[in-house]
Design a protein that fits this description.
The protein is an alpha+beta fold and 61 residues long. The longest helix has 15 residues. The termini are far apart.
């Protein structure tokens, strides 16, 4: 049986998501470019989860 590693980071390439998280006071840990696409990475926290829930609720309803 293989043990899967838990990813401690959340990544996004959505600038709307980055702006929303910034407005919530959540800062990314680092940013990089992968294959010409800018990717922001965040440390997974409870606050990040709550903010993402609000973001997706706002944009899917």
């Amino acid at each position: 049986m293989k043990i899967k590693k838990f990813d401690k980071e959340y990544r996004t390439d959505s600038s709307q998501e980055v702006c929303f998280l910034s407005e919530c006071g959540i800062r990314y840990t680092f940013v990089k470019t992968e294959n010409g696409v800018t990717v922001w990475k965040y440390k997974k926290t409870k606050e990040l989860g709550v903010a993402l829930s609000k973001f997706w609720d706002k944009y899917t309803n």
